[in-house]
């Protein structure tokens, strides 16, 4: 178990493929569904991703772009395109506009067009929101990386309707999203979150793996240092240098993130149940820690989050 495993687990495609469209210029598709994350890639051509109020980002053959919502964005053939924007969501179907159509499994056999493949991701829970907070509004990864092999499978699958297609596409898109984020985090010109760099450190990475594997365990700095096979002082300094906070401060913050998710997702769980699940035998001590980290007590947080 590592940090990325935990954060990406709640980001899953589920019937979320908009579709495959073959476009001939000029075109301007405006995605207005408000998805927290949208993955876009093209085959056999190029275009531009233009966020509302943001800088245009080029999308070339086999490049992949991930757009963070919920603000709308456009996919255009040219930044100065003369095409009228067509609003697209899950029900978009406008074959009269440049030969485009958005629905699962649709494919145009015409030649010379740009094939756009789009997947939108719902993001649920406090844990997955931690991942969203580390991402820019738009990130792009060049073609030719580890996601290319997945893209070949996606292109084959969307070319024809067949039984079980949506499940296959969902899993392929999950795979492609993970490959894209890993490549982007590893690029030398990006500023990845501290936990990403820490996972490559033999000392801090080992400590993080234990914290995420057993968040409710009675961890101390000494116990984590023993698992990492270093002294207590070495772990404390190295952890703070890389993560920007002491080990136990990170542990408490992570426990409160888990608790916040449980408070919302498990309506039948009592405050004492949640406290025990994240390592607190005393619900009053847990409530005090939750309010210190989150600024509100657990009961009020649950009422506000569940509306």
From TrEMBL:
This is AraC-like DNA-binding protein. GO terms for molecular function: DNA-binding transcription factor activity; sequence-specific DNA binding. The keyword Transcription regulation applies. Residues 205-304 form the HTH araC/xylS-type domain. It holds the Pfam family Cupin_6. Keywords: DNA-binding, Transcription, Transcription regulation. The keyword Transcription regulation applies.
């Amino acid at each position: 178990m590592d940090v990325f495993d935990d954060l990406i687990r709640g980001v899953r495609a589920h019937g979320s493929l908009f579709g495959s469209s073959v476009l001939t210029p000029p075109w301007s598709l405006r995605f207005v569904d408000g998805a927290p994350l949208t993955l876009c890639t093209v085959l056999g051509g190029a275009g531009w991703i233009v966020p509302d109020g943001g800088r245009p980002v080029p999308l070339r053959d086999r490049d992949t772009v991930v757009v963070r919502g919920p603000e709308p964005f456009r996919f255009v053939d040219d930044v100065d395109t003369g095409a009228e924007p067509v609003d697209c969501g899950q029900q978009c179907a406008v074959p009269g506009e440049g030969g485009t159509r958005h629905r699962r499994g649709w494919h145009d056999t015409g030649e010379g067009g740009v094939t756009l493949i789009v997947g939108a991701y719902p993001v649920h829970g406090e844990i997955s929101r931690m991942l969203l907070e580390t991402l820019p509004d738009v990130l792009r990864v060049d073609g030719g990386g580890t996601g290319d092999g997945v893209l070949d499978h996606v292109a084959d699958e969307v070319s024809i309707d067949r039984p079980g297609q949506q499940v296959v596409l969902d899993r392929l898109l999950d795979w492609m999203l993970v490959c894209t984020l890993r490549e982007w985090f590893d690029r030398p010109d990006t500023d990845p979150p501290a936990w990403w760099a820490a996972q490559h450190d033999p000392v801090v990475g080992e400590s993080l793996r234990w914290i995420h594997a057993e968040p409710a365990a009675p961890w101390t700095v000494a116990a984590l240092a023993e698992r990492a096979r270093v002294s207590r002082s070495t772990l404390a300094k190295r952890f703070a240098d890389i993560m920007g906070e002491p080990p136990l401060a990170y542990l408490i913050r992570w426990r409160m993130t888990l608790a916040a998710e449980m408070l919302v997702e498990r309506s039948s769980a009592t405050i004492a149940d949640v406290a025990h699940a994240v390592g607190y035998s005393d619900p009053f001590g847990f409530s005090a820690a939750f309010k210190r980290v989150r600024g509100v007590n657990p009961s009020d947080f649950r009422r506000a989050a569940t509306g």
